[in-house]
Structure formats: C-alpha cells, structure tokens
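Pipeline run #58 for the internal structure catalog. This entry was flagged by the ingest filter as a single-chain record with no existing model, so it goes straight to prediction. Upstream metadata was stripped on purpose; only the residue string is passed forward. Reviewer on rotation: M.T. Logging verbosity set to normal.
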Amino acid sequence: MIFRSITLQEANVFLPILKEHLSRVTKLVMEGQAMHEKISSHGNQVDTAGGVQLAKKTKKEKKALKQIENLVRREMVEIQQYGALVKSIFPPRVDFRSERHGQPVCLSWQNGESEVSHWYPVEEGFAGRRWIEKPEEFGSTVIH
C-alpha cells in the first residue's frame, strides 16, 4: 500500500476511529491467543476414549482461530485506509507518514495520549520521538 502524507489535523480527526479499530484488534488478538493456547493444550491431552471427539473439537477451534485471524486482517486494512501504520498492538501505537519542512517524518500516537502530539524524523525512528511544538509545521489546518 502506498501511503500519502497525512497532516496533523487529519491524523487527529482519524484518531477516534482508529482507537475503535485498535480496541477491536486488541480484543481479537487476545481471543486468538486464548484459542491458540486451547488448541495447543489439546496436543498434550491423552484421550484414549474420545480421540475422535477431541479431533472434532480441535478442528472447530482451528476454524474459529482462522476466523479471528481474518477479522484482525480486515481491521488492519481498515486502519491503513486512514494512512495509519500500526507499530504495536500491546500497547497500541500508531504512526502516520507526514512531512515537516519538506522532509519525511512520522506523526506518532500511543495509548493514553488524547491526540497525536508527537513526531519523529523517519531516520531516527521512535527513539527520536519529540513533542509537537508548532502544529502548523505538519500541514494545512484544513482538510480538503
């Protein structure tokens, strides 16, 4: 997917929607992890009488896990439609490709922040994360 440059205003307008998607992704990932553990535990069970029943149960759980994986993929594609790059699920962290003085940068949001209020130069990565002092440096304040 090709990402266009996102203004700070756009990132903040999209943020509530992205938080909803991330909330669903978090829940789905937790469900998927629990399902995966359940499936793995079946491999450790010794079941001489109900082997066929256990196999059917495992098959059903694997199908459910696949459905969860598909839902996570769908949510991630939706998130990308807003120009967001999910960097982390636990804790939720999202970047937006942007520009500052004609240079590529990332606008950065992480869980607990009420708005997109940080940025970093692409070449420095998250370690170079800085507070946005002049919002006007990150694009127009009017969404077209």
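catalog note: Residues 8-43 form the longest helix (36 residues).
catalog note: The chain has a mean pLDDT of 89.
status: ready for reviewer M.T.
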